Amino acid sequence: MTEPNAYKRPTLGTPWAQSGRQPRIAIVGAGMSGIAAVVKLQKAGYTDVTVYEKTEKVGGTWRENTYPGLSCDVPSRWYSFYFALKADWAHRYSYGADIQAYLEQVATDFNVTEKVIFNTAVAELTYDAPCWHLVTSDGTQEIFDVVISATGILHQPNYPDINGLDRFRGACFHTARWDHSTKLKGQRVGIIGTGSTACQIVGAITDQVSEMHVFQRTPHWLSPLPQIAYSLGWNRLLSAFPFMQRLAYHYYCKLMVNTFSAATVGNKFMQRIINRTCVKNLKDNVPDPSLRARLTPTYDATCKRLIFCSDFYPAISRSNARLITDGIAQVEAEGIRTVDGKLHELDTLILATGFNAAAFILPARVTGEDGADLETQWDGAPRAHRAVALPGFPNFWMVEGPTGPVGNLSLIAISEHQMDYIVGMLDHMKTEGLAAIAAKQSAYDNYNAAMREAIKNTTWATGGCTSWYFDKSGVPNLYPWNPLQYLKSMHNPDYSEYHLVK
Ligand code: NAP
Prior knowledge:
Bound molecules: NADP nicotinamide-adenine-dinucleotide phosphate
Strand content: 15-25%
Low-confidence stretches: none
Number of strands: 21
Strand order of the largest sheet: 3-2-1-7-19
CATH superfamily of the largest domain: FAD/NAD(P)-binding domain
Helix content: 25-40%
């Protein structure tokens, strides 16, 4: 029962799907999934859209990461919006600046930029049926019918908990907060971590610095990156015949799904091929047997997120590079002291230590029905129904939410398919005159129980490694079946999995 003096939030009146008005839609984040969200909504006729972006530009991860060597190891022809294929990509694997320019261009061409409120983070979202109440970091309040979280997955830097990090007297920064004022040429540079990011950086800067110290906790497998620059003639051909762009898109999609994805979800033949490719890559590119031994992982090649990089092994084999595999005891003013007591003197320290992969829309405070708090509910192990919906959080959807198919796939493609699903939900609300739609607890439980069972058969769980794929519950937070099955499911919403509220 409502208390007589209880605060009653303002509403938007009759639910949008019953009044014939446009739904007011808030999107959190103007990265590639936020851009996809606006375009897909606009194409479907949903135009009352506001995007909240915490920084001054669109682009998300490609705006945020500006480190040397930044590139995408997913082929450009597939790492593109299907609604905005680009004939003139410069390379088979695009560099970060080219992707950022592309995202900005698409945002302009498709009238996304004008929908964005920049430099404004979303601090709170509260559901008071049938509306969402949004509070920004500057205290502005707004009401929406629908909220779409498009915050990305890896956006909160993981700062390592290493004793003395604050005592280092040189420049020290995370890879996603690159300090471009720091001179690297001729300096003694240390980097902690040997993931995808570190490999690209080491490959790009080792020939410029005087000493490159790479602190490796666990060796990673690397597959070569078959980079090529596209010729003008080839790109003109694709421009003249747009169907060839679509052909290339599908070709790379099939290639990645049938090889790398297949290997992760149980294809033993592909696993063997990838393992052999990685072993050969190491052997061919690291001539020193002792260095090679220290770079050799003990787990399956597809267990962690496979790194595609052709520059790291030649770089780490250079005479000015040192691979340090003794654990880090502490950071001191002059450098890093390892557990063997040795001090590695450094001028600059780079933290290539990854991201908090359990954040998603957090730290925004998201409160659903009956005061349900999202952070408490997830408790470090984020889950979702089909990676997009949550029980108890009506009219709230996530793009690139927990348990989506990530791995070595095009996240742009995944976002687009998820948006098709979300648009399908909105269309269903409209035709049925619904006030709210939310995943049923039973559907969410069944889906996640099936995932938990299936993940046991994937190389992420059986491959003998740990990685950012694992959440606090100790289970990899990924889609455990063939990703094409997931993409297909995004086009066939099963409404029996949802509470449909009139
Ligand atoms: P990451 O894969 O999580 O790697 C972090 C590295 O830091 C690992 O080597 C880890 O060691 C090490 N590390 C973390 N904490 C440490 C500590 N306290 N002490 C010592 N070492 C520590 O992070 P990332 O390289 O930034 O990549 C994150 C993800 O971004 C990738 O998996 C990929 O999905 C994406 N990415 C993609 C591309 C692309 O081309 N598409 C490029 C860059 C990044 P352990 O292995 O022992 O944990």
